[in-house]
Amino acid sequence: MTARMERLYLKLHQQPMTAKELAVMGMLILCRIGMVARADETPSVVPVKTLLSALNSDDFSQRVSAQKSLARQAAENPESLAEAFGDASAEERARLLQLLEGVFLASADEQGDRAERTLMTLADAGASTAEAILIGNARLRESRAREAIERLGAHLTYIHPALSRSAPPITAPGVGIGFGEPALLRVILIPETWIGTLADLWQFERLSHHQNLIMYNIRGSRLSVDDLLPLTAKLVGLQIVIRGACLGIESSPGSTTAEITAVIEKSAAAEAGLQPNDLIEMLNDTKVRNFSHLVELLTEFHPGDKIDLQVRRNGDSLVIPVTLASWKAVLARELQALPAPTPFPGPLGFGSPPPPEKPVPISDSDEMRGRANN
């Protein structure tokens, strides 16, 4: 029995537990039974439908055996539960969902991820109870997603809700309430140091309880707009912005020139000595038509690249060399970012997976298709 289960057991004998706690306790015990099956056991795989029917047997031993087998399958092959879901009765569906939720809550590793993704598949197919489970555990999903996303090189930026211009709503109960200072997820940054693959993009779907997020995809991440576009069906109001290296300046909306209205503190522009009211006329040998054109030109460069900007300042023409930087620090300062929320352990305390071995950056591959059309 794990330390967490021992504490729940003690609580059961010290004070009444809620119906939710009792249900979760039962599912956790069943799922743990399935996860810790002895290595020398080689149980035959019984169809999930058969096991569900056995739960109604008059033979107590058959019912217990079926419960153990279902728990084992939920842990080892959660997808098999989804396959049986369509033909199951309402009561059987409830059992399957409880088992999947138990594995998800009890396993902050690949087993938990597979159970969660199975719940996501069922929710997409119209299972409202599966969707309710995901929404109810939104804080845990976001916490696990953030750790996975940051291990892969991306970054989530949180701000105080009062600083949000569009005040995007939070649709999941309890998010930002009762978990310390309010912090609203606003920006997803996928930098040039991203080491994930297309298969890892599901991690961002775990943030579906947020709306109107902005995703910056930086040139060099090996991800294209086409790769990220399916996420807009999962994240309501998601805005995907393609950027190259960061210069760190602002201009008036709709400006017909590339005149600088503000220079972001400690940005590449600030380090190079660019000033408000400077008019950028050339980038290397290319004439800059307006600010939008400048942004488009910068998408062709990577952080660390050196460029020459020809600017008009007080009637004089100057050539200013600039070493371009990453967007991460600039976005954090510009958005007045808050520290990310403390990792949330979930109702059972199984929040974060153990640290993996140091990841090895992937090389260009057919899977990523090497597209660099950003």
Which strand order does the major sheet show?
Answer: 1-2-3-4
Oligomer: single chain
Count of distinct structural domains: 3
- Rounded to the nearest angstrom, the radius of gyration is 26 Å
Q: What is the first-to-last residue Cα distance?
A: 52 Å
Structural class: alpha+beta
- Tally the helices: what do you get? 14
How large a portion of the residues is in β-strands, by DSSP E? 5-15%
What is the molecular shape?
A: elongated
Sequence stretches where pLDDT stays below 50 over 5 or more residues = 9-13, 35-40, 167-178, 359-374
Element pattern in H and E: HHHHHHHHHEEHEHEEEHEEHEEH
DSSP strand count: 10
How would a textbook summarize the main sheet?
4 strands, mixed
Mean pLDDT: 80
Helix content: 25-40%
Name a few traits of the molecule.
374 residues; alpha+beta; 4-stranded antiparallel sheet; disordered C terminus
Précis, in short:
The chain is α+β, with helices and mostly antiparallel strands. It is built from 14 helices and 10 strands. The protein has helices at residues 3-14, 19-35, 48-54, 60-76, 78-85, 90-106, 110-124, 128-136, 138-151, 202-205, 225-228, 268-272, 291-298, 327-334, and strands spanning 155-159, 184-190, 214-218, 239-243, 249-250, 262-263, 279-283, 286-287, 306-313, 316-323.
